[in-house]
Amino acid sequence: MLRKGLTVMCLLVFASLAFAGGAGAGERFDLQVGITLTLDSHYGMGLAEFARLVNEYSNGTITVTIQPNSLLGSERDLVESVSMGTVAMALISTGPIPNFFPDFAVFDLPYLFPSAEIAYKALDGEVGAELLNQMAAQGILGLGFFENGIRHVTNNVREIVTPADLAGLRIRTMENEIHMNTYRHFGASPTPMAMGEVFMALQQGVVDGQENPAINILTSRLNEVQRYMSLTGTFYSPAVLMLSKAFFDRMSEEQQAAVRRAADEAKHWQRRFSQENTAQAIADIRASGTLVTEVDLDAWIEASQATYRDFEGRVRQDLIEKIRALK
User: What CATH fold (topology level) applies to the domain 6-324?
Assistant: First the structure.
């Protein structure tokens, strides 16, 4: 089980959602926020904190209802729905976002970030701000980058130590061109698939394996249908908290400030939660009977360089250089 008081936090979020009162004049909002993960995932827990904070800072005029498990659609669906204003909010990985905003592809390059701390500097700095600002043109307010995490590969066929061990395996990836390209260079057969379909696909043998952060693997119970996990850490995956501008523009200035403040504070809270619980998630996966293997990353980094060559000129080099310059 993930620690840090999951039960308490879930009680807090339901309490905050039930509360519709509070002081303050103007329109009241119940923001429906879609995620593809569970309520007790690091997405769900981060949004619980956001719900608590925005309710407090808006004097009860804004509540948040979390819709988990792809109830409001896949990640790609959620981007479209938030853009059109048919869904108020979403928290999704950056995986499908380059299909709508191509410059976001820089975040999907393999082994780009040497640490989560470097990733945070990029996401909270000039690079992240430029990319979030691009979303406004399609009716989306990018409120900041939460954490999805460092992605590792699992499978049901054999232990994976080197990229060559992936040869011929059908590996579920996100609907992301760079991720698929990387796994092809590893020798696998990448199969893009929405998160809501992954458990059943693994259980029925439609795919042999998948790749995800450890917390996602555990809270989505993927370890129950996977015998092997390798700590490849191929991608650091951010997540974008997005709000429909149609909703935001209807809010008072005080409500808008409350949303921005709550999003920023919840972002930092969620990242700490993710980092603190990742090691425990890996331990829990190992305890469940899945063989967890550490790998020599040098071989994986070397194999991934072919992806950089394939996407030269297609991913902005200036963004890559700005990220690599961070220390």
Answer: D-Maltodextrin-Binding Protein; domain 2 (3.40.190)
